[in-house]
Amino acid sequence: MTWRGKNRTLQILASAEKGRYGVLAAIVYNVEHITAFVRAAENRRSPLILQLFPSSLEQTPPLIHAAAAAARSASVPVSVHLDHAQDSEQIQYVADNLPFDSIMVDMSHYEKEENLAKTRALREYCHGRGIAVEAETGYIEGGEDGIVGTGDLEGILTTSEDVEQFLDAGVDLLAPSVGNLHGDYGPRGPQLDMNQSVAEREAWVFRTDSCRLHQVGRALNGRARLVLHGTNDFPPELCRACVAVGVTKFNVNKLVLDPWHEHLRRNVNKPLTQLMGEGIEVLTREMEKWMDVVGSSGMADTAGAPATP
Ligand SMILES: [Zn+2]
C-alpha cells in the first residue's frame, strides 16, 4: 500500500466524501480537550480529527504526543493534524520529528505566486514523509487564539482558477475563502458568499446555485477534500448545508469549546479534579451533539481502517 492508503487523515476524509458526511477537526489546547473529544468519538462511533495550533508545540510540547497516543489507542479512527503552520522551517522540523498525520501548510499570507511555490515545495517534503497536506486558497480573514496574527489583511475569495493552481501544487485538502472568517462573526452571524437575500439568510436557505463554497466543491470534483475553516457561531442548519455541498473536514474551535469555557467560569471555586471531570463531561456532550449535526455519528466502522494497526 502507498503512504496515501495508510494515511489516517486521508482515510477518514475519503470515507466521509464517499458517505457524504462531515468530520469534525477540533482544536485541542490541553489534555482535557483530547480526552473529551476522543470519548465523544467512541461514544458516537464517529471518526475524528484532533488539531493542534503551532503555538501548542512551543507552549505545551508534550501535547502532540498525548494527542497521538489518544488517536492510536482509540477504538474509532482518529487522526492528528497541525493547523495553520506558517513557518517553513517549523513545518520541516515537524514533518521530520512529530507524529502528525497531516499538516496545514498555510502560506496564505504570501502573494499568490510565492504561496504556490512554497506550498508545492513543502507539500513535496511532507509527502516524502507520509504526511498529507492542506492549503488555504485566497485568504481567510481574522484570527483565532493560537494562530499567529497576520495583521489586517483583507479576505480574498477563492476562484476556480485558484483551485486548479493548488491542485497542480499537489495538495490533498483545500481550505477555501468563501466569506468564512476566523474568530467571531458579530451580530449579523456567518455570511458565506452566496448572494442570499436577508429573508433567505434568516430562513437558512442555502443558495447552491450562487454559493461560492458549492462552486469550489464542484471545481475540486473529488480531486482533493474540501475543508471549512471559521465555523464559530455556525448554527446546525448552516453546518448541515456546508456538508451537503461537499465539506468533509469541518474545523471547529469555539463552536465546541465555548460551553467548556462557560463551565470553567461558573465553577472556578470547585476542587480542581471536580472542575476538570465535570468539564470533560460538558465537552463530551457538546462534541457528541456536533458529531450528530455533521453526520459522522455511527460512521466509524466504515471510516477506513481503525487507527490501531
Ligand atoms: Zn483556520
TrEMBL record:
Pfam families tied to this protein: F_bP_aldolase
Database matches in PANTHER family: D-TAGATOSE-1,6-BISPHOSPHATE ALDOLASE (PTHR30304), D-TAGATOSE-1,6-BISPHOSPHATE ALDOLASE SUBUNIT GATY-RELATED (PTHR30304:SF0)
GO function terms (MF aspect): fructose-bisphosphate aldolase activity; zinc ion binding
Protein name: Fructose-bisphosphate aldolase
Entry coiled-coil feature ranges: none
Cofactor-binding details, from the entry: Binds 2 Zn(2+) ions per subunit. One is catalytic and the other provides a structural contribution.
Protein family membership: Belongs to the class II fructose-bisphosphate aldolase family.
Listed GO biological process terms: glycolytic process
Positions bound to Zn(2+) 1: 84, 182, 229
Active site: 83 (proton donor)
Keyword Zinc: yes
Entry keyword set: Glycolysis, Lyase, Metal-binding, Zinc
UniProt catalytic activity: beta-D-fructose 1,6-bisphosphate = D-glyceraldehyde 3-phosphate + dihydroxyacetone phosphate
Species in which this protein is naturally found: Aspergillus indologenus CBS 114.80
